[in-house]
Amino acid sequence: MSRRRPIFALLLGAALLFGPGAVAEPLAADAALSAASRAGRSGKKNLLVVFHASWCGWCRKLETVLSTPEAKEVLDRHFEKVGLTVLERGEKQALENEGAEDLLDSLAGRDAGLPFTAVLDRKSRLPIATSNTGGPGTNVGFPSKGEEVDHFVGMLRKGAPRMTEAEAEVVRAAFRAAQVSALRR
Q: Model pTM?
């Protein structure tokens, strides 16, 4: 079992134990962050935390961009990624990571909007940078404009000082490709 993917292994183990129809209860936010912190120590990687919800179309779009093969390769090289589910409604509240909404509130304020992204120090879990551009209420969410993409990439570079400009350009290109794809629809 790989030390890099303890969360995946935990979920896979639960699925095997309880059968194919079983849905594992989401990890509490603190447990998810602890697992990512442990995994990030060996590579000295900080945490890239993405707050999202199942109803949030912009959240799905951000995940699509961040999981393109090129962007994913860059992000995996520099970060341990943690997805935290918040602000669900009705029966979907069971999808939430316990404690994630309090963490979101402490990082972004009550009305941050989704998706919200933060880079946290792997040791202290203190914020290095967030998707707020100037304080509460300034979340870029899904970066669609050039200055929003620049802010997002700048946030990544603060959390990964060894990220090269060429790697940063790979992430920018993934956002540009998403914008072009949206225009074609």
A: 0.84
